[in-house]
Amino acid sequence: MRAFTFIRKLSSVPKSKNFREELEINYISTNLFQKTLLTVGSATVALFDPYRGDMIACLGEVTGEASLKYMREKMLDNSEGAEILQEMPRINSQTVCFKSLSELPEDTLGRVYADFMRENDITADSRLPVQFIKDPDLAYVMQRYREVHDLVHASLFMKTTMLGEVAVKWVEGIQTKLPMCIGGGIWGAARLKPKHRQLYLKYYLPWAIKTGHNAKFLQGIYYEKRWEQNIYDFHKEMNISILTER
Amino acid sequence: MALQRRLLQFINITKSCQKLCGVQSYSTQTAAQSDNGEKRKTHFGFETVDEDEKTKKVHRVFETVADKYDTMNDMMSFGVHRIWKDIFMMRFAPTPGTKLLDMAGGTGDITFRYINYLRNQASSNTEKRSSVTVSDINQSMLNVGKLRAEKQGYLKDSPVDVDWLCADAEQLPLPDECYNAYTIAFGIRNCTHIDKVLEEAYRVLQPGGRFMCLEFSQLPNSTMQWLYDQYSFQVIPVMGQLVAGQWKPYQYLVESIRQFPDQEKFKLMIEAAGFRQVTYENLTFGVCAIHSGFKL
Predict the structure, then answer these.
(1) Contacts of A34 in chain B (CB under 8 A)
(2) Across the interface, which of B12, B22, B238 has its CB nearest the CB of A25?
(3) Which of A67, B80, B250, B271 could form a disulfide with A178 if both were Cys (CB 3.0 to 4.6 A apart)?
């Protein structure tokens, strides 16, 4: 998998300014023709090789402009989301101390997250920087979506198996309206083996649709300020009902 | 992964270049300018950089693309680059006893064709050993070449001695007149000082030695050039993103092609270095050209 490791520059500059600087370095201008080619191409490559995370990222960016606007509006709807947009916090190994999180009491959001990352052998540094979105505010929403994805997995108790990923994509697709999520939910499910497909149709899909509609807007949650919150209180507050135990 | 990170830090597309992505015509910039007391500037694609920056930036481009280099070449040219290189070798037509310096030889495409050509010749003359020095400024590219050479069996039982040299074409760590043939395929446009490369080529060649260059060039027909520009700027970087996960090295590639002198101008530069009987031949309507000259 072509994971792109990006280490955020350590500086005394406020976080939001750093993101804008990074975006300027990484931004690639594309016209409609190129966006179309990228859409078709990245969707095809991602379908044949789901491990090409950069293709999913690319697809999300070139098709997501309208959805990002919607997401931004939803975030501005409450004070927590508005705070995130103002401060532009980042989630990676420089900004989040995973060691401290893993020492928090069990059943706290932070501990659940740290355990999830460790058990699935994933790092918060594998999220690719945004390349194809010009507006810094929208680009930030996309970056935040990416960096929060693992937290959504962890708090919904969904594993990083194909089944878990597809379920999370459905939840995210319903909440964010990102075409990449909706497409991922549908096409990803097509790749499931018979046994998992049964589970998907009987349990995971109905649960994902219900959760997507009932839960509060997961992208607008300031997770970094809730590390000590009990995970079950978190579920109650966000109107999440779990399918499986951890 | 570390290479990709470094590449993103150093390769910067300026605002003026961003505008060009939608524009229909792509004009070339003038060559290096120097202001009194300031560092000499040159082009890196459509960007203007200090000359010493260019070497580093080009180096990073090739470090990044090395492992997907051959796949991308096939994709971008629909496999036609293989034919270009075949024709190049046919024009070169080496005889046993040739001592070749294959500059910017990186992944070995020209060298392997050279070895095959000599292998296929009726070897009545088994005494004259031929040789090739594969040279590239970038060790990553040479490593890919070495691996391919071993895998494809070019090093065993070969009529040709092969050695590998990591070196800068503008300053070769080689004595005068030690080769009788010099090839450089799709490499010279990446060099900061083309005139120095040509001078070095002249220096290391023996009298009677031949200089041959295969490089992207300009299309004489302006409609064809326009079509080619559209394909280059609209499609190739997208392909790079899809296949190799990299946009910017391929943006650099198509820009650097526009910055390179056209066929006639390059011919004059080769003559200025001292070569005679300089000729060129266009391939694929001028998409690339083979230039040839002799040290007489």
Answers:
(1) 21, 234, 237-238
(2) B12
(3) A67
- The distance of A32 to chain B (nearest Cα, Å) reads 9
From chain A, pick out residues whose CB is under 8 angstroms from the CB of B13.
28-29
Q: Do A30 and B242 touch (CB under 8 A)?
A: no
- Average of per-residue pLDDT across B202-207: 97
Residues A41 and A115: beta-carbon distance below 8 Å = no
Q: How far is CA A65 from the centre of its chain?
A: 16
Residue A190: per-residue pLDDT: 87
pLDDT of residue A73: 95
CA distances to A42, B114, B121, B125, B212 from B180, in Å = 48, 14, 19, 18, 11
Whether the CB-CB separation of A46 and B266 falls below 8 Å is answered with: no
The answer to whether A105 and A111 are in contact (CB under 8 A) is yes
Structure tokens at A71: 């997401």
Of A81, A112, A86, A83, nearest to A98 (Cα)? A112
Work out the average pLDDT over A192-210.
93
State ipTM. Answer: 0.81
Q: Measuring CA to CA, how many Å separate B135 from each of A52, A208, B47, B197?
A: 34, 58, 27, 13
The Cα–Cα gap between A141 and A147 comes to 10
Sequence-separated (6 or more) residues with CB below 8 Å from residue A106? none
Q: Does B248 touch chain A (CB under 8 A)?
A: yes
Cβ–Cβ below 8 Å for A38 and B8 = no
